[in-house]
Amino acid sequence: MGITIAMAAGVMLILALIMSVILGWANKAFAVDVDPKITAIDEVLPAANCGACGFIGCGEYSEGVVKEGAPVNLCPVGGAMVAKMIANIMGVKVEAGFPAKAIVKCAASYDEKAGRCEYLGERTCASAELVANIQSCTYGCIGFGDCVKVCKFDAIDIINGKVVVDYEKCVGCKACEKACPRGVISMMPMKDDEMFVVACNNKDFGKDVKKVCSIGCIGCKMCTKVDGSIIEMQGDMAVIDYDKYDAKTSVAPLQAAAEKCPVKIIVKVGNAGGK
Amino acid sequence: MVTTDTGNSGKRNFAGGVHPSGHKGLAADSIIEVLPTPATVTIPMSHHIGAPCEALTKPKQELAIGELIGSSKAFISAPIHASVNGVAGMVCSVTLPTGKRVKAVPVKAAENQPDAREVYNDFFKGDYPTSGLEQYVPEAITEAVKSAGITGMGGATFPTFVKFLKNEKKPIDTLLVNGCECEPYLTSDYRLMVEAPLAVLCGALLAARACGARNIVIAIEDNKPLAIDAMRRAAKSTGITIMELPTKYPQGSEKQTILSALGRRVPGGALPLDVGVVVINVGTASTIARAVTRGKPLTHRIVSVTGDGIKHPKNILAPIGASYADLIEHCGGLTDDTARVVSGGPMMGFTVGDLTSPITKGTSGITVLVQQDVEAPPETNCVRCGKCVDACPMNLVPTRIALASRYRQWELTDTYHISSCIECGCCSYVCPANIPLVQLIKTGKALKTKK
Lengths: 275, 451
Fold this sequence. Notes:
The complex is a heterodimer of chains A (275) and B (451).
Chain A: H1 2-29, H2 36-44, H3 58-68, H4 79-90, E1 100-104, H5 125-128, H6 146-150, E2 156-159, E3 162-165, H7 175-179, E4 185-189, E5 194-198, H8 206-212, E6 231-234, E7 237-240, H9 251-260, E8 266-270
Antiparallel strand pairs in A: 1-4, 2-3, 5-8, 6-7
Helix pairs in contact in A: 2-3, 2-4
Chain B: H1 25-28, E1 33-34, E2 40-44, E3 54-55, E4 62-63, E5 68-71, E6 80-81, E7 86-88, E8 92-95, E9 101-109, H2 116-124, H3 138-147, H4 160-164, E10 174-179, H5 188-195, H6 197-211, E11 215-221, H7 225-235, E12 241-245, H8 254-262, E13 277-281, H9 282-294, E14 300-306, E15 314-319, H10 324-330, E16 338-343, E17 350-351, E18 365-370, H11 371-374, H12 387-391, H13 398-406, H14 410-415, H15 426-430, H16 437-450
């Protein structure tokens, strides 16, 4: 009896020894070299996997930084802090950038959107866009919230037909920009706590805009004539050139332009109040 | 892929399809009326599939009917002509019921307009020859069709001359003239065949000369006995076959008509010319006849203004660019329980949100629906009954495509051949769960092209 137990134990022990040798060898022979930098970067990334950097997820981005030399400041969720940490890991310097945030180029609520029709189909903007005359303005927000559905950060909401962005939560991942079938949402560099936005996307001639919306940009060019204005006309639509925007010098002329605007469509957005 | 069989060996039918009630009686017996010239017409610069036209007019320029007002240098495009005598205004933008936002030229009508009787006779009566057409050279016919700005009048608005261009590898043996008019309510093609069979036949013969087809078949659904009679009587000794097809939606859809009438199946992603066929609508045929024999461009079209929501349903010959409101007003206006104004028929038509928008070369009808026509219970879950599968004339599985499209599974939509869908709406029509199947599929197609 005692011998049987001792033999079984001995066999197991020998087997264990042989296996451990094989495992030990395999560990070295089949080892995959992972750059310690990739692991390090992976750890500092926020793991939101939102895809805003252009890579599929955070893991792919950290590989991209190390192997393909992708810029270190692509993560909008982590912002400047994460960019700095990645830069430290990679031993490079990062230039101070501005976080991108979503701006909505339509400020019309249901009261201002003229000619809204009864709609019984699929309640998404992408489907409603196929139905002509869902509302008279063919450029403005439809208001079924495709942007709300794709936002992973709960930063966007629709209140009475008007899209409202929470600039505390918005990380500039561009998901809403891609989801909007009419291109109403775009990204701007947030160079200040509060920024000015021309909240209209209607590219038509003023008379045609007037017919469809009471607060649409009519292309009167008043805002471009203010001293030091950084507003340009693109066709019949006013557009702020954010590349020229400077937190110190641009605010006053934009404020003046906003006051001159006959339809009051140059609005302030941002953390401190606004829309 | 090309069949050598030039016989008309179709089984007169296709799998799938639905039988919606026709409602054709509303306007079927009303003789085509000429719309009194409206005060202004707004002529869009893009009616067709292809490049939009550039407006050639200056504000306050005087225009005569048929004067060229828009053209494009692009290959696939169709020029646009003034449809009334009048004065051009400043170029503006209009939204068409198809959702396109396009430039348009408003024309303020002058006082001297042709008499209604004169216009009617010019379009439908007089001598449309059905023999001795040898004097028209094929290339000259194609050129005349091109410069007259003729596009498919059945609704798809593809520039017609492109179909006539010779292709060495794909010879055309049959011209199929589509007089099915399978959409419920619409009667414009029917009235045309009854009132002006010679114009249709003349146009068909000219089109066949242009594309080199020896065999001409005119397909008509069997719910139009008067049209079949009129066409048969007129077509004696022309060698044209008038073929009766069973009434079923979408019998008039290009691929289904070819299958029914000729027994040829157009493969997915292919065009009728791949099986040696050119298909034109009867309205297009009559316009071709007028353009070639009388040298007149496409300026007017027949529009059925019908449905229970219209006081006096009529078929109207209207100048392109007249507004929906002008036509509706001429028919006595809307009734009180009107719920929807649809451009085209109820199955594939587009809802018109703004009655001031203009009719185009592709507006075959205005269907005004009342509340009881449009009532739909809310959507419920798919019960996998397979009704849409039975109804699909393209032998697809609509429910799978629609759901894959709703959840943005693009690879799955390809597996189920989303691109083969002809958007006829049979699936939505039969769905007991009221899932907007065809809308979801259309959304999927639109989003995929955008990607």
